[in-house]
């Protein structure tokens, strides 16, 4: 029976050894089983990569969008900073031209630098120019010359206003002394508040600069009415913590006690004035001078005994004689305030840039770590696949080169003998 079976099954002689070939269908089933294992492992690896891919894409997109948003924000901040720098440079150029003209009125203005005094030389034109600069805040502006008792005015001034100004000048003339500058707000009920600034030519006052604020300024900006008492409205806290209320108290305050011996047009003189009292509220001096830009002359006391070139007590007195003290002071205040804001914005941009650099570095490290993990997993799956392929080749070679009988069948195809080792290998 065994001999008949051997004759029916095909045989092959290899290297002098007679081998019986297995049935064609059994080897195909083994290869199919190994193929299923390889496909399952490949699909598992692909599913893992597919699940991790959205995370990588999301991290990349979020980092890119955050970086783009930060770049746009920094770009807008830089554009705003450039605009502020241009405004500050323009204000500084204006201030320099005005100071040059005040110190040397005969000298021609700098070419390319425009200022209100460029084409005017008379006292009337100076008063008109100063009024035009502050027309939204002033009802009228007048300069009373004490040397010849003449009055030069600009704006919407009536006969009643002129009469009130003359009466005010006569009533206050006895209070002016060379050693005590006076800044007085006159309460004329029917004519509104009149702000008066004496203009000194050492050692005696040469004139008086008077302005009347518009009711809208008193109502909206200062919170006062025409018939209110402005004496107790303003106050200054000096570096010693002393609070001075009202212009009349401020008039008796010595110059160096308030702001030291610094030149008036130097922006550092603000360091001595820490706070300004407005009503019941203390606000920073720099903000107060910037906000109430029609009142700075009422908050500054000068020292007329300090002599400067030309016999004037200071450069600000020279500017006052030209009817331009307010303009020069406001330009200086605006320049100092703008430079301070520029420094603050620069520090904020620097801090934001440092934070952004740290975030970019941290997220770059996270992406590198994730990439390294994925590369390690891919390498591990590749190694497993290579081992499976090597095992398949080894098992196939073992079966193809086997020298023992793997199995026997009868003519009906039933197994009569199976090699235990081959059965264990084939599963």
UniProtKB/TrEMBL annotation:
Start and end residues of each PAS domain: 391-427
Transmembrane segments: 31-53, 316-339
Top-level taxon of origin: Bacteria
Coiled coil: 339-401
Keyword hit for Transit peptide: no
Key words, A-Z: Coiled coil, Membrane, Transmembrane, Transmembrane helix
Listed name of the protein: PAS domain S-box protein
Lineage: Bacteria, Pseudomonadati, Thermodesulfobacteriota, Desulfomonilia, Desulfomonilales
């Amino acid at each position: 029976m065994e001999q008949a079976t051997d004759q029916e099954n095909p045989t092959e002689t290899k290297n002098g050894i007679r081998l019986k070939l297995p049935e064609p269908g059994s080897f195909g089933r083994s290869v199919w089983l190994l193929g299923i294992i390889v496909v399952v492992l490949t699909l598992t690896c692909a599913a893992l990569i597919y699940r991790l891919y959205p995370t990588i894409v999301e991290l990349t997109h979020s980092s890119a969008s955050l970086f783009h948003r930060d770049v746009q924000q920094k770009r807008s901040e830089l554009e705003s900073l450039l605009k502020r720098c241009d405004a500050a440079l323009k204000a500084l150029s204006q201030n320099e031209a005005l100071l040059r003209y005040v110190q040397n009125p005969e000298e021609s203005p700098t070419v390319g630098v425009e200022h209100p005094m460029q084409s005017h030389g008379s006292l009337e034109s100076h008063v008109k120019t100063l009024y035009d600069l502050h027309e939204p805040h002033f009802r009228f502006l007048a300069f009373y010359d004490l040397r010849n008792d003449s009055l030069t005015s600009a704006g919407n001034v009536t006969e009643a206003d002129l009469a009130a100004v003359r009466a005010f000048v006569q009533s206050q003339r006895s209070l002016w002394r060379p050693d005590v500058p006076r800044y007085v707000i006159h309460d004329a009920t029917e004519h509104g508040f009149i702000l008066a600034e004496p203009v000194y030519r050492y050692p005696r006052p040469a004139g008086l600069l008077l302005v009347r604020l518009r009711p809208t300024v008193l109502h909206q900006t200062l919170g006062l009415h025409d018939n209110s008492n402005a004496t107790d409205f303003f106050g200054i806290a000096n570096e010693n913590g002393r609070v001075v209320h009202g212009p009349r108290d401020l008039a008796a305050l010595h110059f160096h006690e308030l702001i030291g011996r610094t030149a008036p047009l130097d922006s550092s003189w603000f360091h001595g004035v820490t706070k300004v009292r407005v009503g019941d509220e203390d606000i920073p001096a720099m903000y107060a001078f910037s906000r109430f830009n029609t009142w700075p002359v009422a908050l500054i006391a000068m020292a007329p005994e300090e002599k400067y070139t030309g016999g004037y007590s200071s450069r600000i007195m020279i500017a006052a004689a030209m009817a331009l003290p307010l303009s020069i002071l406001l330009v200086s205040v605006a320049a100092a305030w703008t430079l301070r804001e520029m420094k603050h914005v620069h520090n904020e941009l620097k801090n934001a840039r440092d934070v952004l650099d740290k975030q970019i570095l941290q997220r770059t490290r996270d992406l590198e770590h994730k990439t390294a993990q994925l590369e390690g997993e891919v390498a591990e799956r590749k190694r497993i696949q290579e081992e499976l392929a090597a095992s398949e080749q080894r098992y196939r070679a073992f079966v193809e080169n086997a020298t023992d009988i793997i199995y026997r069948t009868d003519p009906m195809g039933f197994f009569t003998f199976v090699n235990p080792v081959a059965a264990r290998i084939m599963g």
